[in-house]
Design goal:
By secondary structure, the chain is an all-alpha fold. Helices cover about 90% and strands about 0% of the residues. The protein starts with 11 loop residues before the first helix and ends with a helix.
Length: about 160
Amino acid sequence: MSKQPEKYQVFEKENEILRSAKELLAKPDMFPEQSWAKEYELLAQSYAQLLGEVKLLTSVSDRLQNKLNKANESIARKNDELTQTLEMLTKERVGKRATTIVLMLAALFFIISELIIDPQLQEGAKIFGASGLIMLKITVAIGLKPLEVLLENLLLKTAARKKM
């Protein structure tokens, strides 16, 4: 028998039984009938023991495979949850950034309106009346929301491109 590392000697007993059975089959005339019966009985006992061990190992393997499958499913679910959470956080962050930019633009429009446009519109208010001036300011204020949505979509597309 060859010297094998210890981890390969797991089936040493089974290999010895197989070698003995092959020797018996190779020279059938050299062994009396009693030897055949004894060898057959030994082979049947060894087979029964080996079959029992295989059933046990298969059962353990199946249970471990089921645990592994459940763990993989759990990991996949957690990964999906994390992906969704990351997407929500990205949308929130982009939404805040868009709102901040729009508020800064609104403040800039307000300052420009108060310093430059209002004095000129006061002159025009004589023509259109005070309600025309108020309608113009309301139109600018309402126009800020679509601007925010447009800016938010643009920032989301930019963030998505950065991910890839």
